[in-house]
C-alpha cells in the first residue's frame, strides 16, 4: 500500500491486481493479469510457478508483457507446508520446471521480453528492500532495467 501511495501520481493509477490477502488468485486471474499487462510484478511466498499451472502457462502467448519481476522464494512455516503438500502431487520434472532459471526460460518462450527473478530463497524484508530499490530506479529515476539491476547487485 505504501508503494501504491508513493507512486500513485506517476503510474499506479493504471495498476491492477491482487494485493495482500484479498483472496488467492484463480488460474483465470493469473492468466488475465499476465496477458493484459505490459509489466507484471509478483511479490509473494515460495516459487511463482507453484501458484500458476505449468501446462496453462506454456500454452499462453504474452508478447505484450515486456517485464516480469518475480520477487518470490520467501519461505514461512505455513508456505512451506502448502508447497510440500502441493509438490507431493507433482513429478520431479514438474518441480524442476518451477526453479528460477527454468521459470525465466518458460516466461521468455511465452513472449515476455525481460524477466527479473530471484535465484535463492530470501526473507520478506530483503525482498521489500529489493522492491523499493527496483521501483525507485525504474519509476522515479527512469533508469533502464539493466541499470537498475546493476544498482541492485551492489
UniProtKB/TrEMBL annotation:
Matching InterPro entries: CFAP46
Signal peptide coordinates: none
GO biological process terms, semicolon-separated: axoneme assembly; cilium movement involved in cell motility
PANTHER family per record: CILIA- AND FLAGELLA-ASSOCIATED PROTEIN 46
Protein name per Swiss-Prot or TrEMBL: CFA46 protein
UniProt source species: Campylorhamphus procurvoides
Lineage of the species this protein comes from: Eukaryota, Metazoa, Chordata, Craniata, Vertebrata
Gene expressing this chain: Cfap46
Amino acid at each position: 500500500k505504501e508503494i501504491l501511495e508513493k507512486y500513485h501520481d506517476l503510474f499506479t493509477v493504471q495498476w491492477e491486481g491482487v494485493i495482500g490477502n484479498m483472496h488467492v488468485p484463480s488460474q483465470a486471474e493469473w492468466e488475465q493479469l499476465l496477458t493484459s499487462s505490459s509489466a507484471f510484478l509478483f511479490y509473494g511466498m515460495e516459487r511463482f510457478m507453484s501458484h500458476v499451472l505449468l501446462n496453462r502457462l506454456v500454452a499462453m502467448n504474452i508478447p505484450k508483457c515486456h517485464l516480469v519481476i518475480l520477487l518470490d522464494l520467501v519461505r514461512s512455516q505455513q508456505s512451506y507446508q502448502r508447497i510440500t503438500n502441493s509438490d507431493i502431487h507433482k513429478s520431479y520434472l514438474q518441480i524442476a520446471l518451477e526453479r528460477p532459471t527454468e521459470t525465466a526460460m518458460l516466461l521468455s518462450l511465452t513472449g515476455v521480453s525481460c524477466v527479473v527473478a530471484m535465484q535463492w530463497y530470501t526473507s520478506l524484508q530483503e525482498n521489500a528492500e529489493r522492491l523499493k530499490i527496483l521501483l525507485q530506479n525504474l519509476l522515479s529515476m527512469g533508469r533502464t532495467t539493466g541499470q537498475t539491476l546493476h544498482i541492485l547487485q551492489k
